[in-house]
Design a protein that fits this description.
By secondary structure, the chain is an alpha/beta fold. It is built from six helices and five strands; from the N terminus they run E-H-E-H-H-E-H-H-E-E-H. Helices cover 40% and strands 13% of the residues.
């Protein structure tokens, strides 16, 4: 049985599983499809093969950035593989989502991340969904004219 490609593979450190599952549930509630270890990798599965399949078949890999994520050897393998896909032309192959204060690795520094640090749930949901959207929402009515006399 061939599985259909999913929108997002959510990669995270085990200590950040509450964030990862909230992110996946939020994306799924908005109509996206996800692959996440907590829900999709079952006892007896080949973990490395499942990771490889998710990295290969999902349209985007979403990394849950925290100090634990950035210092883990296992998640480093995941984000570097996803980032390599970006460098080879996969559009937004790796989308970082920062959930805790952390120094982003030098290679990840140039990537714009979705920042969920210290915001309420509604704001976090809005930021996440705006960040993963294919297009940026434009302000209604256009931006305010920046010239003219100052009050």
């Amino acid at each position: 049985m061939v599985s259909r490609a999913k929108d997002f593979f959510v990669t995270y450190n085990g200590k950040d599983e509450p964030w990862a599952t909230w992110i996946a549930a939020t994306l799924e509630a908005a109509g996206y499809t996800t692959t996440i270890q907590a829900w999709d990798f079952r006892p007896g599965d080949n973990f490395m093969a499942a990771m490889d399949h998710a990295l290969t078949t999902c349209r985007h890999t979403l990394g849950v950035l925290s100090p634990d994520y950035l210092t883990s050897l296992f998640t480093r393998a995941e984000w570097t593989a996803a980032y390599r896909q970006t460098l080879l032309g996969k559009t937004r192959g790796f989308v970082p989502v920062r959930v805790a204060e952390c120094d982003v690795a030098p290679l990840l520094g140039p990537l714009v991340y979705i920042d969920l640090v210290d915001v309420e749930e509604a704001e976090a949901r809005d930021r996440l969904l705006a960040g993963v959207a294919e297009r940026t929402a434009r302000p209604s009515g256009g931006p305010r004219y920046p010239g003219g006399p100052r009050p």
